[in-house]
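tokens incoming
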């Protein structure tokens, strides 16, 4: 019988071994993954590239998302979700990457602001929160593609330069 503690350790090992931890870029990173502290809390500003392409000269049409950097508390929330779903270490990476609940949870925890976000009727949509997290009602309005892109930005697989982020601040 697997205890919660050992299940958590196994899932942590699996996530770290698959290089989902972006805490170190050195060649010896695989050996140190999960042992190097996350960076200090940072915020970046992002807009989907499709808006930049469709409206290259009209930034007033660009939605801007304010995103908090992923941290150890976010990682723990994901691990708790995996444990509650009885995900074993062999399936941890696949669950992390492909299960829509992880995407939803990461966006819920790390999206902290929006500006100029419009719905299909061109009505501006404000970020709704509950207890400091994005509300389920707001999350349910985000299309899967947008949630997935936000997850990529949060997890650092889509790089946003400091210059790009600074030009979008609100």
């Amino acid at each position: 019988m697997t205890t919660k503690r050992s299940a958590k350790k196994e899932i942590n090992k699996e996530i770290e071994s698959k290089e989902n931890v972006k805490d170190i870029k050195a060649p010896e990173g695989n050996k140190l993954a999960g042992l190097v502290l996350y960076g200090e809390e940072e915020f970046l500003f992002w807009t989907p590239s499709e808006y930049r392409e469709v409206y290259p000269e009209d930034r007033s049409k660009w939605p801007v998302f304010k995103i908090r950097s992923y941290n150890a508390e976010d990682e723990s929330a994901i691990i708790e979700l995996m444990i509650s779903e009885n995900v074993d270490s062999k399936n941890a990476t696949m669950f992390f990457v492909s299960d829509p609940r992880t995407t939803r949870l990461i966006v819920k925890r790390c999206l902290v602001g929006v500006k100029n976000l419009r719905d299909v009727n061109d009505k501006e949509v404000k970020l709704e929160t509950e207890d400091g997290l994005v509300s389920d009602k707001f999350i349910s309005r985000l299309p899967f593609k947008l949630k997935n892109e936000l997850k990529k930005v949060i997890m650092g697989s889509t790089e946003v330069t400091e210059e790009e982020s600074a030009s979008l601040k609100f």
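note: Residues 18-27 have pLDDT under 50 and may be disordered.
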